[in-house]
Amino acid sequence: MDIESIHEFTMNLGEVEETQPFGLDNIVYKINNKMFLLLATDEIPLRFNVKCNPELALELREEYSSVIPGYHMNKKHWNTIVVDGNIPTAKLKEFIQHSFELVRGKK
Predict the structure, then answer these.
(1) What total of structural domains would you count in the chain?
(2) Which of 30, 39, 67, 90 keeps 20 to 30 A from 73, CA to CA?
(3) Is residue 106 part of a domain?
């Protein structure tokens, strides 16, 4: 996945707001005015942060070397995903979808 495909997938989830509160190098995607995806546009390889169920977050870190504790985030609830080709695109989309659904459920 690249920045454009992440953006397109994320915006098609519905009711998503795109913001840049941390500067031009980061895109924050929100639902219900709450962040669920932070995309670093200046990182090589590409990286993004997603919210995750705490138990699942630990499982994913054990399963994939490209999933690490959330950079500059609460490491219990956030993972950083390194898009380096080691995780299939379908799984990357699952991570984004999971984060979206977690945050959308909170009002």
Answers:
(1) 1
(2) 90
(3) no
Entry pTM: 0.94
Q: Strands 26-31 and 67-69: what pairing?
A: unpaired
Separation between Cα atoms, residue 6 and residue 12, nearest integer Å: 10
pLDDT digits (tens, 9 = 90+) for 51-81: 999 999 999 999 999 999 998 899 999 999 9
The answer to whether residue 88 is domain-embedded is: yes
Instruction: State which residues form the domain around 65.
Output: 3-100
Does 25 reside within a domain?
yes
Nearest to 8 by CA among 20, 22, 23, 18: 18
The residue with tokens 């500059």 is 72
